[in-house]
Write a structure and sequence with these properties.
about 280 residues, alpha/beta, TIM Barrel, three-stranded parallel β-sheet
Length: about 280
């Protein structure tokens, strides 16, 4: 149901749909979920159920040699008739490697019954310490995959110039990091992310660095289309509860974005009238 059908005053807003649309496909949640770092497949499944994400992302490169480990078990046991798989190229250090892994991801989607799924979360990360994405490798791989009819969701440092270049060559989204992967530092690049959002004609998904629900709220309040979360949930003391909390935070931030916050003032303003009071 569209937001304008449920909240008076949003009828004339642009882009006020409640569904997230990427690559022509509509999703009823603006939360994407990673599947790494969970203690067990059961905990991951509980968290996914609590979060009700639009899609779940799986690192295809790390599935190649895992045999019957927990991650492989999770891939085989998740209900793919109701979940949408977003294969990612995490662990790839070059554009060529990412292209090869993207192709493998598509084959896995077909085996899971999602024949038409050519989505890929594109990551090209040569730096093993800071895990910052390679802008040149990302741009090169994205251009190739787009020409092969993939729906490309590139993970990037929050560089407004690169974000616009990726949009112009046909990426379905851009996914700027809030702070380094797995750091839980929140939105340390807020100004750059805001510029990317303001200049984008495609969805902007804040990815990496979210540590708790308030970070998700902030990302959505400034106009992000969605957030992708993994470590904040998987490494919480109670992952399923954090999953629910962040899911609610995404919705809360989306509503706040449309509500438009009050203007800040440099002085106090009384909330009750001071005129006409008895003396």
């Amino acid at each position: 149901m569209a937001l304008s059908n449920t909240i008076p005053g949003t009828e004339n807003l642009i882009g006020d749909e409640s569904n997230l649309v990427i690559g022509g496909k509509s999703f009823n949640s603006r939360l994407m979920l990673g599947t790494g770092k969970y203690e067990s497949a059961d905990i991951a499944m509980q968290s996914i159920e609590a979060a009700s994400p639009s899609m779940v992302t799986v690192a295809i490169r790390r599935l190649q040699n895992v045999g019957t480990t927990k991650k492989y078990s999770l891939l085989k046991t998740l209900p793919w008739h109701s979940l949408f798989l977003l294969p990612n190229t995490a662990g790839c250090t070059t554009a060529e490697e990412a292209i090869r892994i993207a192709s493998l991801g598509h084959e896995i989607c077909k085996k899971l019954g999602q024949e038409g799924n050519k989505f890929v979360k594109l990551e090209v990360i040569p730096d093993p310490h800071h895990l910052f994405p390679d802008p040149f490798g990302t741009l090169k791989a994205a251009e190739y995959l787009i020409n092969k009819n993939y729906v490309v969701l590139p993970y990037i440092y929050p560089d407004p110039v690169l974000a616009k270049q990726l949009e112009e060559i046909g990426c379905a989204t851009v996914m700027p990091l809030g702070s380094p992967i797995g750091s839980g530092q929140g939105l340390q690049n807020l100004e750059n992310i805001q510029i990317i959002i303001d200049n984008a004609s495609i969805p902007v998904v804040v990815d990496a660095g979210i540590g708790t629900a308030s970070d998700a709220v902030k990302a959505m309040e400034i106009g992000a289309s969605a957030v992708l979360v993994n470590s904040a949930i998987a490494q919480a003391k109670l992952p399923n509860l954090m999953a629910k909390s962040i899911s609610l935070g995404v919705k809360s931030g989306r509503y706040a974005y449309f509500a438009r916050r009050m203007r800040k003032a440099n002085y106090a303003m009384p909330s009750s009238p001071i005129f006409g009071l008895p003396v």
